[in-house]
């Protein structure tokens, strides 16, 4: 099917097989794509040791050398973008056109950090007396371990591995057991691009707890990076504490999307469609609570309903598909439970919640959502729009901020003074103003409060993998 389809973990530049296997399934058909080997304890330790050996070599290389290797990786990913996109659609389910977009987006991180590798600047510090010279410079932190989720199986990997390599760090990756195939393909292409052997290891396992414990307890692992739920992130942070690891965490969100009555309503609805329905709503920055000023509520709902009811649900390999399947049956079950709870508590459904079979979920609008409903407080991770009416700006800001999360927020307004006020008042790490798609490799991605620690992308993304060393020299 695919010349980048592999079924074993990748350690020290070689595939590593075990006797135990598990199935990677196509969410569209619920049929097995391939059986892959499940890593054992010895394999995890072998990967950590391989990464440590690679780090010893890699930290001695110069920035231009690492930059050139990353550029070759970028070129190989782009050369194989169709194959990678098809592989992604098979294991993750998103429409092929979205998968192609993700390959290019993910490759953008590789290219950006290939350039940033040469921009890891230090400082000359003005001396406080005539007898000393003060400087600082940056060095790679060491072996990095990471766990990535299933919803963006390429971009979530490249935005971690590329800056690590650019900084001079090696990496041990545990991808989601639902979407490990893209990670293997990326590691293989990185090896072909000239990565130091052992600099990018991929561990396949259904037992994330076991792998996570071994990675977090290792003294050789000096940095841990995770993208996933806040609950798991808290657990991993606790596990990293005994060895005082550097951590970066991109955790859950509950993104508000605010439409003020002075907004261009057509643009707002178009932006909402992208922010809500990309990847079937299965994104951490998906618009989750849609606040609409009451004076334009009916107009917005009417415009939105026309677009939502026109969406086509189906296999991601079908060109006509707008929304692919949810990742697995429990994801669909969660959406159905949230919808049922909201309707039982007074929300009005727009759209037919028809049973499509398998992992497919029909797109819906729920109007009249309130804080008493579970869907108000939880990430939906599905194609359901929750509409909440509001009257005044202070009211909606209080509602938008009244959650423990602070990843992404969006609002539409044509009032410049309001734009400044609201963008500064929203307690979120990222804010989209009159735009529903805000992710960009050149900008820092990350949240505040319980949505995480650290930033990925931008020049800040490189610093996550560097330590600053201060040097005081007496002359």
Automatic annotation (TrEMBL):
Gene3D superfamilies per the UniProt record, alphabetical: Aldehyde Dehydrogenase, Chain A, domain 1, Aldehyde Dehydrogenase, Chain A, domain 2
InterPro entries the record matches: Ald_DH/histidinol_DH, Ald_DH_C, Ald_DH_CS_CYS, Ald_DH_CS_GLU, Ald_DH_N, Aldehyde_DH_dom, Aldehyde_DH_Superfamily
UniProt-listed CDD domains: ALDH_F5_SSADH_GabD (cd07103)
Keywords in alphabetical order: Oxidoreductase
GO molecular-function term, one example from the UniProt record: oxidoreductase activity
All residue ranges annotated as the Aldehyde dehydrogenase domain in the record: 19-471
Claim: Oxidoreductase is one of the keywords in the record: yes
Coiled-coil stretches: none
Active site, renumbered: 250
Enzyme Commission (EC) number: 1.2.1.-
Homology family: Belongs to the aldehyde dehydrogenase family.
Name of the featured protein: NAD-dependent succinate-semialdehyde dehydrogenase
Biological source species: Pseudoalteromonas rhizosphaerae
């Amino acid at each position: 099917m695919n010349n980048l389809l592999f079924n074993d973990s990748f350690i020290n530049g070689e595939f590593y097989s075990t006797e135990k296997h598990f199935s990677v399934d196509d969410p569209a058909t619920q049929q097995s794509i391939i059986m892959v080997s499940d890593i054992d304890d010895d394999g995890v330790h072998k990967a950590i040791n391989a990464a440590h050996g690679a780090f010893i070599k890699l930290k001695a290389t110069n920035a231009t050398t690492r930059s050139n290797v990353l550029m070759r990786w970028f070129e190989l990913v782009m050369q194989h973008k169709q194959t990678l996109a098809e592989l992604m659609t098979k294991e993750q389910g998103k429409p092929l056109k979205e998968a192609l977009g993700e390959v290019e987006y993910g490759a953008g991180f590789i290219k950006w950090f290939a350039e940033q590798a040469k921009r890891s600047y230090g400082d000359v510090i003005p001396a406080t007396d005539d007898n000393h010279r003060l400087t600082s410079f940056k060095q790679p932190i060491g072996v990095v371990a990471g766990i990535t989720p299933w919803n963006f199986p390429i971009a979530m990997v490249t935005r971690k591995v590329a800056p690590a390599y650019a900084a001079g760090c090696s990496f041990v990756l545990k991808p989601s057991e639902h979407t490990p195939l893209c990670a293997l393909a990326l590691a293989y292409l990185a090896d072909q691009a000239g990565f130091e052997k052992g600099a990018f290891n991929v561990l396949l396992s259904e037992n994330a707890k076991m792998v996570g414990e071994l990675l977090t307890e290792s003294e050789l692992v000096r940095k841990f990076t995770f993208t996933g739920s806040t609950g798991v992130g808290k657990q991993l942070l606790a596990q990293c504490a005994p060895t005082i690891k550097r951590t970066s965490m991109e955790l859950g969100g509950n993104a508000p999307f605010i439409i003020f009555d002075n907004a261009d309503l057509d643009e707002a609805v178009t932006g909402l469609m992208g922010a809500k329905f990309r990847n079937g709503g299965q994104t951490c920055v998906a618009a989750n609570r849609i606040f609409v000023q009451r004076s334009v509520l009916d107009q917005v709902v009417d415009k939105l309903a026309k677009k939502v009811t026109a969406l086509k649900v189906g296999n991601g390999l079908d060109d006509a598909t707008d929304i692919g399947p949810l990742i697995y049956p429990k994801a669909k079950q969660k959406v159905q439970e949230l919808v049922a709870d909201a309707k039982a508590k007074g929300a009005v459904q727009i759209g037919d919640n028809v049973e499509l079979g398998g992992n497919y979920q029909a797109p819906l609008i729920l109007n009249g959502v309130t804080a008493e409903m579970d869907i108000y407080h939880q990430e939906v991770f599905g194609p359901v729009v929750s509409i909440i009416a509001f009257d005044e700006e202070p009211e909606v800001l209080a509602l938008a901020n009244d959650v423990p999360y602070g990843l992404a927020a969006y609002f539409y307004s044509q009032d410049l003074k309001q734009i400044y006020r609201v963008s500064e008042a929203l307690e979120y790490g990222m804010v989209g103003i009159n735009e529903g798609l805000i992710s960009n490799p050149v900008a820092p991605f990350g949240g505040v409060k319980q949505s995480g620690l650290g930033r990925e992308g931008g020049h800040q993304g490189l610093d996550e993998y560097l330590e600053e060393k201060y040097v005081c020299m007496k002359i």
